[in-house]
Amino acid sequence: MKALARIALLTMLVLFITISAHSQENLWYELNGKVVELYQQGRYSEATNVAEEALKVAENTFGPDHPSVATSLNNLGEIYRAQSRYAEAEPLYKRALEIGEKVLGANHPRVATFLNNLGEVYRAQGKYAEAEPLYKRALEIDEKGPEPYGGDVVTSLNNLAILYHSQGRYAEAEPLYKRALAILEEALGPDHPDVASMLENMVELYKNIGNEDEAKRLEERAKRIRSKSQ
Predict the structure, then answer these.
(1) Residue 16, pLDDT score
(2) Residue 85 and residue 208: Cα distance in Å, rounded?
(3) pLDDT exceeds cutoff 60 at 1
(4) pTM value?
(5) pLDDT higher than 80, residue 21
(6) Integer Cα distance of 31 and 168 in angstroms
(7) Who wins on pLDDT, 24 or 180?
């Protein structure tokens, strides 16, 4: 009888731990959703507090090397980056990238996300040499993914194009913009606001290289798209 009682107690303990872990997992998802909501609203101070709590919950619930921890690190990094707090964002992205490569594999789409975001931190600080290989690697991963013509590829193409554009490497930036535009037009249609955003990037490029006619043509098209979406 005592043995049975002990087994029952152990069973109850395991059940309690399972329920508790499940509750913590749900809490992490809830906090993560709140982080995204506050971030999109530009409420960065509040978002930071919630993101820090989400990171703690992730580490305590899943362990230090879990993909959910990497997600929380990335999200907190994004909040810092939006506030130009690059020195605080960089180590978070680096740790997220390290976890992603270790647990998910070097060619996982989420690794590409971490690479892109770390590249954005470097580009914003003018550290172009550090940013370029990250963008290139992210693009290579995205192109090998299940949707080689999807939004992730567009993001990588656009970020690499902006990097070249920022350095005056216009001949390298132009085909990347064009390819990103073609993907957007095919996937979303010619009058989608994201198409307008890409056109606006290209307008700046053509103005920089002195092709005023092409800049004007694309600028007028972008304005027409914007007017339709208002």
Answers:
(1) 39
(2) 29
(3) no
(4) 0.86
(5) no
(6) 42
(7) 180
Distance separating alpha carbons of residues 29 and 18, to the nearest angstrom: 17
Residue type, 27: L
- Strand ranges in the chain using DSSP code E only, listed in sequence order: none
Length of the chain: 230
178: its two tokens: 């064009």
Locate the domains of the chain by residue range. 26-120
Domain 26-120, CATH = 1.25.40.10
Does residue 19 carry a pLDDT above 70?
Answer: no
**DSSP per-residue letters across 45-111:** HHHHHHHHHHHHHHHHHH-TT-HHHHHHHHHHHHHHHHTT-HHHHHHHHHHHHHHIIIII-TT-HHH
> Is the pLDDT at 230 greater than 50, yes or no?
yes
**Gap between the Cα atoms of 169 and 165, Å rounded:** 6
